[in-house]
Amino acid sequence: MSDSEDEEVADTHLKIVVLGDGGCGKTSTVTRYSQDQFSKSYEPTLGVEFYLKRIVLPGNKNVTLQMCDVGGQTLGGSMFDKYIYGANGFIMLYDITSNQSFENIDSWLTSSKAVEYTTEPHYMLVGNKVDLEHQRVVSKKKHDTYATDNNMGSHFISAKTGDSVDLCFKKLAADILKIKLSKAEVDGAHRVVKAEVKSSKVESKPSVRSRPTKPKSSICLMQ
């Protein structure tokens, strides 16, 4: 066996930082991607939490992603620059049902760009909670315009259902490493989401025929 066959190719390590307001789904997004889990309960992240996931990109490129879930209260804090230092990519996450979380992306973006990096990081604007499309207040046009104006990638996901979460991280990693994903790889990364359909059919009740009331009498029906 040759030395080249015996040697294992070292993984490429990428640091991905997830920023955004509290409650927009940062922790849910990272745990959905790294552990395929989702919790309905909300517990604010204090400081920063780290997650790891190993993926394979085209060309048998092994990549280890270190994902940093930064708490929403850290913006403007003394530790913020230390949490994000060395980042290769940023996911700027907001809630499509909260205009305030979208407006605050500007502050997160400005603060992240105030830190010096060895290599200029990649940014991706990500709208979460597309499972609540009927409650959307941030239009897709507004999202796309902001992403274009700030030279950011663009994506929509649902941490709850898992829709497009895998593709979001995979696309960001591929962009950082200048690797092009094929259409088949993009299509294959989409999660098939089965929506729960609730019947709107009202259960029929036995018909009640009205009877003529007799004089000086009243009937009160209690259900």
Automatic annotation (TrEMBL):
<comment type="similarity">
    <text>Belongs to the small GTPase superfamily. Rab family.</text>
</comment>
<protein>
    <recommendedName>
        <fullName>Small monomeric GTPase</fullName>
    </recommendedName>
</protein>
<feature type="region of interest" description="Disordered">
    <location>
        <begin position="198"/>
        <end position="223"/>
    </location>
</feature>
<dbReference type="GO" id="GO:0005525">
    <property type="term" value="F:GTP binding"/>
</dbReference>
<dbReference type="InterPro" id="IPR005225">
    <property type="entry name" value="Small_GTP-bd"/>
</dbReference>
<dbReference type="Pfam" id="PF00071">
    <property type="entry name" value="Ras"/>
</dbReference>
<keyword id="KW-0547">Nucleotide-binding</keyword>
<dbReference type="GO" id="GO:0003924">
    <property type="term" value="F:GTPase activity"/>
</dbReference>
<dbReference type="InterPro" id="IPR027417">
    <property type="entry name" value="P-loop_NTPase"/>
</dbReference>
<dbReference type="InterPro" id="IPR001806">
    <property type="entry name" value="Small_GTPase"/>
</dbReference>
